[in-house]
Design a protein that fits this description.
It is a single chain. This protein is α/β, with parallel strands linked by helices. A hairpin with a 3-residue loop joins strand 8 and strand 9. Helix 3 crosses helix 4 and helix 5 crosses helix 9. The protein is globular and about 70 Å long.
């Protein structure tokens, strides 16, 4: 019987130490057919172009296909009135998704590690995130692109930066230094260069393992609470997707809040639902609470006779 061809997967490679280690590690530990992907953000002029050239040479030397793209991230961020970091992330995801479709790949490998995870959790905490945000990045998550979804894998998520440095030395790997990593302009750089070292001095210990442990605990607890909420939700839905909330009178608010978010986002498919919107809906369940609230997109949520239902904004001709 003829063996099946290897699965094709993408590897996002910036040329920096983390992604170079990821690529080398994958070649030693997986039988998948790897496609190297690099997006030039155009933020560092000649240096950005040199990064792209380095990645192309790296892929060619390993006998791998390389897909390289270029975007003017700064111009797009200005046009869309979003941060450069947000624009870069959105464009990277679009580039990776489109490249995955081109190659028939369902899996994309990313080089995030434990120190990145600590920065993410700390940033989410300061933005007021709940348990889901405190869980940080997952080792496996989904990237949605239109009707298509792709699996994001982060196999280095439990590696420390020191582990990556040791791997580079052990295998004599070459990489590109990103000069912008030392800039204190981006908030994430300030977390890495200033905030985490300061916390380490204040507590006289390396705080990264504690922050990462918090993330694992938050992910575990969020998964359990979300599962309980989903089971309850199934019992509260009417055929027209209205929600009967009387059965929730004795249910913990921690579960009810997640149930409401699942209903609004997954069942009603509403955009822009955050903590504030969920709190408004929670208030509708209490005696004397509002009978109507406004939701993003011009929609209205109404309450009557123990039910909540959505009045969608009429589409303009």
């Amino acid at each position: 019987m003829k063996p099946s061809p290897p699965t094709t997967s993408l590897v996002a490679v910036s040329g920096g130490r983390d992604s170079v280690v990821l690529l080398h590690w994958l070649l030693r530990n997986t039988s998948e057919k790897l496609v190297v992907c690099h997006l030039n953000h155009g933020l560092r002029g000649r240096e950005s172009g040199q990064d792209a050239a380095f990645v192309r040479r790296l892929a060619a030397g390993l006998g791998l296909v390389c897909e390289a793209g270029r975007e003017d991230v700064a111009a797009i961020a200005l046009r869309e009135s979003i941060s450069v970091e947000t624009a870069g992330r959105q464009l990277r995801h679009r580039f990776l998704a489109e490249t995955a479709l081109k190659h028939g790949a369902r899996r994309i490998y990313l080089a995030h590690h434990a120190d990145d995870q600590a920065e993410t959790i700390l940033a989410n905490l300061c933005r007021g995130a709940g348990l889901n945000g405190l869980g940080g990045m997952r080792e496996t998550s989904l990237l949605q692109h239109g009707a298509h979804s792709f699996e994001l894998r982060r196999p280095l998520l439990n590696w420390r930066r020191s582990d990556i440095e040791a791997y580079l030395r052990e295998h004599g790997l070459k990489f590109r230094e990103d000069s912008s990593n030392m800039s204190r302009g981006p908030r994430r750089n300030r977390l890495r260069l200033d905030v985490l070292p300061l916390l380490g001095r204040v507590f006289d210990r390396d705080v990264v393992p504690q922050i990462v442990r918090l993330g694992r605990q938050a992910e575990r607890d969020e998964e359990a609470l979300g599962g309980l909420a989903l089971e309850r939700l199934k019992d509260c839905l009417d055929s027209d997707d209205a929600l009967r909330f009387k059965p929730l009178a004795q249910v913990s608010e921690a579960i009810v809040s997640r149930l409401l978010r699942q209903w609004l986002v997954k069942v009603l498919d509403l955009p822009g639902i955050g903590h504030g919107e969920v709190e408004l809906v929670l208030a509708m369940l209490h005696p004397g609470g509002p009978a109507k609230i406004n939701l993003p997109g011009g929609h209205h949520l109404r309450r009557k006779a123990g039910r909540l239902w959505l009045e969608r904004q009429a589409l303009r001709p």
